[in-house]
Amino acid sequence: MTFDLTQLNEKIKEKSLFLKTLESEAAKVVVGQQGMIRRILIGLLSNGHILLEGVPGLAKTLTIKTLAKLIDTSFNRIQFTPDLLPADLLGTLIYNQKNGEFIVKKGPLFGNIILADEINRSPAKVQAALLESMQEKQITIGDTTYKLEEPFLVLATQNPIEQEGTYPLPEAQVDRFMLKLKVDYPTDEEEFEIIKRMAHPEPKFDIKPVIKKAEILDARNVVDEIYVDDKIFRYIVSLVMATRDPVKAGLPDLEPLIEYGASPRASINLALAAKANAFINQRGYVTPDDIRAIGMDVLRHRVLVTYEAEAEEVSSEDIIQRIFEVTEVP
Q1: Are 284 and 9 in contact (CB under 8 A)?
Q2: What is the distance between the alpha carbons of residues 263 and 273, in angstroms, rounded to a whole number?
């Protein structure tokens, strides 16, 4: 076991070198937001899609576009609007009058990194088309089904303050996202640096690809090898079960506040994201700290609160924080 772990640690050090390069290159464009960058990398390494929520102007789109440019992959940005149709995402069949045949015109979802900007501005049919391709990793046009090329990562943004003319994602569909990130305002110093860097009519940055997609796929294989002890799996189960049965977990005061607890998908994604976090920290095994580091982002959109909780201004994050405080750490 010791020998294997030593060998794995060496492999992780070698295969994770590109992460520092990615973060340092991204910092040339994006001020702050290290937490958002780190979690996008976790999604990339663990093959999980990400929902980013925050008010306009917090560099959500800029960060995603910058990271996409740094990776030698195809990148497509889709601006979601109320008049969008599923075919605008997936593609369609076009009739060729010359030879009397239908030809396939593939849509923007046929890419590696997809930015779904303001996903809550499009109607349910369009959201469903996107989420189906996220889940199945394939798209059907006419009678033909096309497998999407790996890596395939959807990064969706939504504005939490504007509700008029929006179509909120149903809770069951939000569950398809591995992580939901809350993007916050920058600090005073970060804002000062943003103004200095961006106060130009057209800010220019020399961004070139620094890694190839083969390196991402290799890194994913190494992430898959990271060791997770049964005690860590039990810890994950305890956390998730506490969202479903808080009384059994010793938190009876939370029962009237939770409408629905987290699904089994939460347990799976906690384990996967924790392994990616261990990889980023160049460690061949998962610790409880990895679970705690990523737990809020995996669970916040999977714990639904009751009207009573809303009346008392208790959020899902408050509930999850309590669960983490009470659940015994192995």
Answers
A1: yes
A2: 16
**Alpha-carbon gap, residue 122 to 86, rounded angstroms:** 10
The pLDDT value given to residue 53: 87
Neighbouring CB atoms inside 10 A of 192's CB total 12
Alpha-carbon span 239 to 244, nearest angstrom: 9
CA distances from 290 to 60, 94, 116, 308, 324 (A): 24, 49, 28, 32, 13
Domains in the chain, CATH or no CATH each: 17-217 (3.40.50.300), 226-326 (1.10.8.80)
State whether residue 321 is helix, strand or coil: helix
Question: Which residues of the chain have a pLDDT value below 50?
Answer: 1-3
| 197 to 16, 31, 64, 68, 168: CA distances (angstroms) | 29, 9, 18, 20, 34
Answering whether pTM is above 0.90, one says no
pLDDT at 2: 47
pLDDT of residue 164: 62
**What's the chain's Rg over C-alpha atoms?**
21
Report residue 60 as tokens.
């959500």
Q: Please give the pLDDT value at position 1.
A: 44
Count of H-run helices and E-run strands, the chain = 14, 13
Cα separation, 124 vs 85, whole angstroms: 10
Structure tokens at 302: 């999977």
Q: Is the dihedral of CA 263, 268, 129, 36 positive or negative?
A: positive
What local confidence, expressed as pLDDT, does residue 180 receive? Answer: 92
Distance of alpha carbon 172 from alpha carbon 61, whole angstroms: 25
Q: Please name the residue ranges forming H helices in the chain.
A: 2-15, 17-27, 34-46, 60-70, 86-90, 124-136, 171-174, 188-198, 213-225, 230-244, 264-280, 288-299, 307-311, 316-326
CA torsion sign for 308, 310, 316, 320 is: negative
